[in-house]
Amino acid sequence: MLTAHWLYGLSGCLIMALGLRAVLLNDSLLQRIIALNVMGTGVFMILITIAYRGPDATPDPIPHALVLTGIVVAVSATALALTLIRRLTEEQDSD
Amino acid sequence: MIITNMLFIDILLVMSILSLAWATLTATDVRRSVIFFIAFGLLVTLAWARLQAPDVALAEAAIGAGLSGALLLTAVQLRPRGTLPSEALDNEKQNRSNRADLRSSAAIRWAVTLLCIVLAYILIWALLQALSSQTNDNLAQSVNANLANSGVSNPVTAVLLNFRAYDTLLELAVLLTAVLGIFALSEERAGYAPAGAVFNGLVSWLVPALILMAGYLLWVGAHAPGGAFQAGAILAAAGVILRLAGKPDIGLPVSSTSYLNIILVIGSGLFLLVGLTMLALGRPFLGYPEAMAGKLILFIETAAMISIAATLILAFIGGRPHNREDG
Amino acid sequence: MIDVITLILMTTGLIFFLCGSIGLLRLPDLYSRLHALTKADNLGLGLLLTGIALYQQDLLFALKLVLIWLAVLAASSASAYLIAQYARRQETGR
Questions:
Q1: Which residues of A touch B30 (CB under 8 A)?
Q2: Which of residues 12-71 of C touch B (CB under 8 A)?
Q3: Is CATH 3.30.470 the classification given to domain A5-94?
């Protein structure tokens, strides 16, 4: 079923691979957190592509619920990670 | 029909998304990465709209692009005072050479790139397998079959708050854990100067409109795209705007620790309470009776919205609020 | 007939957006860039939304689009003002 949504799935895989490379290789911690978020968005794209059922049919709601949960968890984990980074740089600067 | 081939739009959108992802990940200045990331989030919202996922699009626009972007912008701002971008780059280079040269050796970089190419191939192959053999629709069919008994008519809300309510309870617990971690690590950052006339004028009508919109999204989540998470994110956006305008009370009872704690806990707490009540009534944990399912879902969603909004606002201000003597 | 008017309106809107983006890339300093961006983009958005509203021919839908346009107008104007004010303060503070 090679319709247009396959294009989004393909880009999701590419974004996830690019994000993983950036998480492992980028320099500052902040850039790696951003790369982690980008990787997460790639995963969401793959999930929503699997849930797609055509332009008129109702899509599968379960991957949608998974992605919704994932978005909220990702932002809370990012918030905690950013606070950790801030605390870490404060500790590093003071010693 | 003016537009006959949406494939063209899909190709353009995917190319924009990929190039923005590339720009985000390879920008040398972190602030540039953050701006590109916000734009990336907005274009991904369009992708969700194209893939028939309006609930996810709402959540991505509010949380993924909006609140994540705000959090990252405040983190980027906290560079050491007085460093220009070039100085900061020199610091980074020094840090990089001081660390073990693992990440700057060309061999390691090539190995990681190869690993990611292999990963991409495996993912694409797995995705093609999943897309070409789509006969296993059992879960979706059982959701459709039981949708009438779930108390709501939006299938995503039904899955989130009825069929897989346990996952949502744990997700609210994750939010609570994150805010507890943030509280343990730091207190709130320095506030902003009181806003001038223009910003105050914007705030005076925007914040009530956002509160109204949050209430509407909460209510309409039962039968149209919407729900507690999107509503909580919009409320958090209202709180962030109040904070940026220099208002001391960011819409939360920051002067009283006990009220603040109640607001943070009320989401997962009420959810757990409802589940245990069902258990006490002889039903399975979180198994709502069909007659009350709609009302219970709205009740839980309201508490969840309040908790989500409070968590995200506190994450934005950076930690535990200071003691405010004069409120 | 409606199709032709819609096409003309949306194309004009897109031309305004293009002008705004070219202004963002080519103009010399911050203030002129802000000027080009907000003015051209708001007008372009207005024309685009008028075209869409005309195409749908539904009054409630058109009112929603007008609300969206007003919200974007207010938000972009306020943000442009704040950016310009901050840049001004940076210049005179130094």
A1: 28, 30-31, 34
A2: 55, 71
A3: no
